[in-house]
Structures are given as structure tokens and as C-alpha cells.
């Protein structure tokens, strides 16, 4: 019961407060991780494993110790706060809706500027379709990374689970690049993040399929996801694109070079409407997950006989 309650409280906090702007714990963690990197960096995988462990495990152990030591209700409140800090459901809309609004107005420069806050590609080179595609892809992918992944690990292991997931995800964003500096050192951060998202990504893809065009979502997931570089982003974006009936993927510019990417989804060209549909899909998915959490909680506690 406390897990479902904590999830509800966290989502309410997210809807009320949104993402903390001034003092976010992940900013402090980023500084700690930068210090660990500066101290431990060697161009070897072992150094990356050590650095990851030093940056993440003390916080996970602290969360385990606190959870064990406190009453279930106090742990519920603390867990709700930690889950809120790990999620970005409202933030998804706050970033994506301005892109949709600018495209609806026909203001391409504003749309490019807004989508530049969501993606790492060279947004100045994008046309209207590519801007809409970038925003839609980001919403679908971050539905897993910023919402459902955190909910999954919290439901499984409570506060320690969500701390592990969010910190590992943050280190992947810092170190998980195939560059000269991070190819070996960041290997552990990238692989651990892939592992932690293995199940949540597929549950997210399933959620998208159930709440949209299930036949198209499943077909796109099965055929297109294996062609995508990321083992987790592929299923999420392919199923999501199929669920809302839009064609995504295709070439995209990174650091001045247009990279070829497989096609995702089926249907109409991306537009402001596809961004809105992707946001709605994530929102409905959150309601579905929360409903399932409460059904399981009530069933476990004999709620059917009350």
C-alpha cells in the first residue's frame, strides 16, 4: 500500500512543483561525479567501474540504511520525495509544448530554439518536419528515461531502487559516450544504464502499444527496433511512433554531420500534433501504471473485501 501511495504523492508533487530549478540534488551529484572522474580517470574500463561505484553506491547504501531504520510511513514520505526528484513528467510537457506551439504558429526559429533544449542534434539545420520529429522522439524516449524507468525501479525496490536508477542514468549522460575520452572509461556507465533500462523500456513500449494503435505499435517494435543503435530506445520509440501513427527517425545532424538513422513508426509526417499525441500517450501511461499499482496494493491487502 505504501508503494502505491508514495508513487501517487510523487506524481502529485511533480504536477504541483515541476522540476526544481535552483537547487536540485542531481546538480550536487554532478559535481561529486566530476570530482570522482578527475580523481579516478584512466583510459581503462576498470577505472570506469571504480569511478561508477564510488559515485553511486554510497548513496544507494545510505538509502537502504535509511529505509530499513525508519517506520514504513516515514519511508513512504521520503521515498515519495526521492521519486519526485528522480522524475520529470511535468518537465516533459514544459519542454515539448513550446515546440508544438511554435510550430503551430509557423514560427520555425522559435521551434528550433525550443527543441534545442530537448535534443543534442544541430537544431539550426532542421526544417519543420525534422523539428517536430526531434521533439516527438524526445518525448517518447524520455517517457521511459524520465518517468517509467523511475516508477519501475521504485515499485521494485523503493527508495534505493530509484536512487540507483537516477544516478546511473545521470552518469550515463555524463560518461556514456563513444569518444576518445570515454570509450573505455565510460563503458561501465553506459552498460549499467542499458541493463537498468532493459525491462522498463520494454514495459514502456508495451504501455504505448496498449494505449495506442496496438497492431501498428507491435509491428514497428518487432521490425524496426532491432535496427536502432540503442537496445532500449529502439523498442520505446518504434512502439511509440507506431502507437500514435507517425513516421519518425531518418537522417539527423550531429556536430555538423548528417547521420543516417533507421525509420521509426508508420503513418503521417511529424507535426505539432504528433508532439501533443506523444505527450498524451505518456500522460495516459502514467495513469495506467498508477492504476495498476493501486489495484495490486488493494489486492495484496485484501481491499476487495472491505
From TrEMBL:
Could you tell me which InterPro entries the record lists for this protein?
Cobalamin_biosynth_CobD/CbiB
Q: Where in the cell is it found?
A: Cell membrane
* Organism domain of life: Bacteria
Keywords (alphabetical) are: Cell membrane, Cobalamin biosynthesis, Membrane, Transmembrane, Transmembrane helix
Where does the UniProt entry say this protein principally localizes?
A: membrane
Q: Which residues cross the membrane?
A: 49-66, 146-168, 281-299
Question: Where does this protein act, in terms of pathway?
Answer: Cofactor biosynthesis; adenosylcobalamin biosynthesis
* Membrane topology category: Multi-pass membrane protein
Keyword field contains Transmembrane helix: yes
Task: Describe the function of this protein.
Answer: Converts cobyric acid to cobinamide by the addition of aminopropanol on the F carboxylic group.
The similarity annotation says: Belongs to the CobD/CbiB family.
- Please name the PANTHER family in this protein's record: COBALAMIN BIOSYNTHESIS PROTEIN CBIB
NCBIfam families named among the record's database cross-references? cobal_cbiB (TIGR00380)
List the protein's name: Cobalamin biosynthesis protein CobD
Q: Which organism is it from?
A: Dyella koreensis
